[in-house]
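Lay summary. Proteins are chains of building blocks that fold into shapes, and those shapes determine what they do. In this project we predict the shape from the chain. Here is one chain we studied, written as its sequence of building blocks.
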Amino acid sequence: MESIRNNEPSTPPIQKLTVDKYSWKAMLGSAVGYAMDGFDLLILGFMLNAIASDLSLSTAQSGALVTWTLVGAVIGGIVFGALSDRFGRVRLLTWTIIMFAVFTGLCAFAQGYWDLLIYRTLAGVGLGGEFGIGMALAAEAWPSKYRSRVSSYVALGWQVGVLLAAVLTPLLLPTIGWRGMFLVGVIPALIAWFIRHRLHEPDVFTQSQKSPKPSLSTSFKLLIKDKDTIKISTGIAILTSVQNFGYYGIMIWMPSFLAKQLGFGLTRSAVWTSVTILGMMFGIWVFGQLADRIGRKPSFIVFQIGAAVMVMVYSQLTDPYTMLWAGALLGMFVNGMLGGYGALISESYPTEVRATAQNVLFNIGRAIGGLGPMVIGAIATLYSFQYAIILLAGIYIIDMIATIFLVKELKGSELQ
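And here is the predicted shape, written in a compact code that computers can read:
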């Protein structure tokens, strides 16, 4: 077992043996929060033109609204993850949801670029804690035999939020405008708060509070405390980076490629996006089911091989209809691995640094993966989009090597 798991208190771990009402509330509260994350980022993308027109923003200023939302999310994820290990999952999720709701609501009343930028950044900080803290809460609230499945259900929240944004924004934006859409964005936050406000802390977290709490700086140091810990942290960081790189690289550039190279119009590109997202959702669900049955490492390797193969195959397709259904398979393998990180990280680190590990390692992947569109765009400009996609397949080979040599199989282990 990893050495980071060897410094736990002498008290035995609390084993969650049954699925009860608390388990479902914890999972639902975490999933709704992550759905809010996906919903918020996508509606912002849809509204940029309207905001820019109304507030007379430049292209650079419009892009900065997205960039600083993501910067805020990374900061919030790291800070709130560490705080939740110290003060509690439910308490910090409540704080973050209130912060997000307040500053998203204020966006509706922004009078210019700078106040909107500040509101968006601070709303992003509130969003940042959702993934890691929610994953830790869900993992601690469910029995070990369902841990990967419940982690995948939380991960599905993002895709549900994206789909809701894709459906609702075209319907509501012409009627209520971008200011009204920001107010609509507060609704998922209120739902998440309602679900969470009666939750208590998981038993495994409560037991961990009997031991001395590490300082915030110590929490981060525990992720690289020795050779074995550095090994697992490096492995997981590679996994999250590759998954985010592939996801952002493909989802940002593929619609443009389909339009320019194959003549896809907006409607057909939207159909491709919807089909691909449905494939991603199916992949996340399948990953959770598979990982609880055959193990975490074999599941990651299956999906990594599938991603590499589908990326290569996809780069050679030219028939529009074939590309539509093949997009679902591509999405299934490229993003399905998102369903496995929650369980893998939860099992690799003790309770006192679990949410810290979730948010730090995932946000490292988000930061590196965010370079995907830029790198693929540069390669496509110098050579071709097909060449960029072929090179993309190579990163999944790195992913497989990291999984085989750096990641430990912890299926069925109790949380410490």
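What the prediction tells us: The chain has two domains: 21-209, 216-406.
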